[in-house]
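Supplementary Text 2. Reproducibility record for the structural model of the 296-residue chain.

All settings were left at their defaults, and a single model was retained for analysis rather than an ensemble. We include the record here because the model underlies the residue-level annotations in Supplementary Table 4.
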Amino acid sequence: RSSYSCRYFVLPCCFFDFHGKYSRRQSKKTQYREYLDFVAQVGFVCGFHVEEDCLRIPSTKRVSLIGKNRTYPPTESALVDKQITQFINNRRTCAVVTHDRRVGFNHKGHCDGVCEEAGSELPENEIETAGTTWMPGFQPREKVEQIRNCASLPREFVDDVVLNVANLLLNATPQKSCSDMQSENTNTWNQGESLSLKEVAEHLNKETLKRLKSEYGGLQTLLKNNHQVFEVLNGRVHIRDWRKEKPSNKTKPEAKRRLSSEAFKTRLCWFFLHHPDGCSLPSESCPYAHGTEELR
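Retained model, structure tokens:
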């Protein structure tokens, strides 16, 4: 409906109608085939010659529908737009009626019969005409989708949260007796304590939490993004001990093995900089740089 010169490509996947999940009406077809036919029908109603193609992609949902040419001349655009409006109104009313269980799934083809009758009962302010709003309450996505996976947060803010949470875990280590300390004299590196995400959140200030809540996944996403420092398992936050990290079992090509032996370090080691005991690994074993002189 955007313009007569519009062309479209659609790859149907999830089974949805204009206002909710798509309801099956033909048991002789698979759900996927029936839905493809419905999406194609929408194209036909909108006045397109709808073509079908199968994409070369690794997916079971790979049938695409394409509309490049119109079935009517530009002079009939206003008339076709009224037909499209009526089609949308009918399907919306059909969805409401079916949801209210006043009418079952006794539909034929697309919404005709009961839906045609229901469409005529729409209030005057609900009936749309050509040139007015396409659908009340419709809100398209913004042209530029906002990134909300904590990746766009300022580096200073992220570093501050990481340092606060790490200090919280390190200081939460339970006090040990002398006998415990003697038995663990071979392991002096402080691994800290594990805390639940809820306990960690309770120690952060309100401004920080408010900022994180606007991101998808919030605090958990930020901690998982900082894989070098933290490990989040079953809702609990741990400081990562790189001594326990298992080397990859995958056999790498000879060229990559040669490169890995030279250890291309592009980031500084957080533990070397901030942990009271330094890094748990020697410089030659750590995947991160122990000082700027190791950066490449």
